[in-house]
Amino acid sequence: MTTIENIRRLDAEGRSGRQIATDLGIDRETVAKYLNQDDFSPQPPAPTRQAGAAVLAGLTHIIEQWLTDDARRPRKQRHTSKRVYDRLVAEHDYQGSYSPVQRFIKDYKTMHRARSQGFFELEWAPGHAQVDFGQAEAIVDGIREVLHLLVITFPFSNMRFAQTFRGETSECIGQGLATIFHHINTVPVELILDNATGAGRRCGTIITEARLFAAFKAHYRTTARYCSPYSGHEKGNVENAVGFIRRNFMVPEPTAVSLAGFNTDLLAYCDGLGSEDHWKKGQKIQDLFAHDIAAGLALPGIAFDPVRYESRKADKTGTIVIDGHSYLAGPDYHNRLLTVAIRHDAISILNERSQPVIGFDRAWGQPGPTVFTPDTLLAALMTKPGAWSNSPIRAQVSDPVRDWADAADSRARSEFFGRLDASAQATSWNTAVEAADRLIRLGDDPTGPGLPMLARRLCQGSEPPASNVDLSLYDRFTTTRQEQPA
């Protein structure tokens, strides 16, 4: 600009173009250019042609026609840049690379964007909450697994809370939300959710809601609103919170002894977020969250129990199937119609009178071996001792117990399983097996009445410590009596 200013200044002083060029040591055409320019106002940058665009010469109208036709197709069956490139190569002998095609389509979509497209900032009143699931890996009890991260946020204050589960069922959503509600001592007046199988689903104006989640809402007197399909921006606050918690709390992968303990730590971490400043409002999040709590609903006197009851008929082995996983109620329940209580972490089997029969930890993921507790098979083994060799509980006992049962005859096995069953019923399976192991190692008979007695002592912690007994005193006493005169 200094050279241009000098050219214009010397021209204003009445010097000729030749003289200006000589004085400034520049070309006369340069002087003429800036003397003839009338407007020096800043101008927008001229659009630059992307390198390689020439290879699309004669093909751009074909690409534009394909993209125009896409407007009448389903959203998930439209051309991607890769698909356009593949068609150009196959149908029009395109010799260029993929990059020019990608850049052209990006520019085309930018120039043909509808006015209605785009986002705007939403205003949220206190007491409203958004709910969503995410996924993250963690190491629980030494096992690496993918956990489902249930996150609830309050957009007014930007306060966030989370719980983790092994699934995204109605029981998981109900348990997670109930835990958070009772932790913060309030209930949001409205929950905004994405389409989720465990809660509900919106298709146009029709909303189908899970029965358990509907009962959950009625219990806490709250309402729910479901976002439009493919409209995650309607709950962008919780979408961001899922990523925030995953990056800040679960990197690197956290380690926990149990999922319950992990969730307790997660709530404590979320409480600590309240001490930060709101990203826009300039106040502490916990101060803004006080307005969310004040605008919420009061908690009911009784916490909601997110449990789903279903009927199942056991097969001839007493096994029932729940969500693809097999659970063994016991051979004595074969062909009976049972009720199953399904919770986020447990499966309880009830008999025809709704009395609890047996409980299991809930299985998740791909179906695996039948879930069972060994003591449910002892009564059947007592009547069918020959099945011991192929029984699943054979691998559940210690080596001494297994070796003794392998060598025993049918009668001794039957008596042993009867004693072991009585011991397990009075104490526990592990205690009964430990008692049998001790008796066998000491050379005692495990089919006698000593097995239940020892199991009860072990359970009560009253088993006397083993010690060596000095019998030399009795030897001396016997010897002394024999040396006395007749």
Characterization of the model:
The chain is 40% helix and 17% strand. Helix 5 (81-92) packs across helix 6 and helix 14 crosses helix 15. The chain is elongated, with a radius of gyration of 39 Å. 27% of the residues are buried. The chain is an alpha+beta fold and 486 residues long. The strands form 4 sheets. Strands 1, 2, 3, 4, 7 and 8 form a 6-stranded mixed sheet that branches. The chain has helices spanning 2-12, 17-24, 28-36, 60-69, 81-92, 98-111, 170-184, 211-220, 236-249, 259-272, 285-295, 378-383, 399-407, 410-426, 429-441, 450-460, 472-483; strands at residues 128-140, 143-154, 159-165, 190-193, 200-203, 206-209, 223-226, 255-256, 308-313, 319-322, 325-328, 337-342, 346-350, 356-361.
Helix content: 40-55%
Q: How much strand content do the residues show?
A: 15-25%
Give Rg in angstroms: 39 Å
- N-to-C span: 142 Å
Number of strands: 14
List the quaternary state of the chains. Answer: single chain
Task: State the low-pLDDT regions, or none.
Answer: none
Shape: elongated
Average pLDDT reading: 87
Q: What structural category arises from helix and sheet content?
A: alpha+beta
Largest sheet: 6 strands, mixed
* Continuous helix count: 17
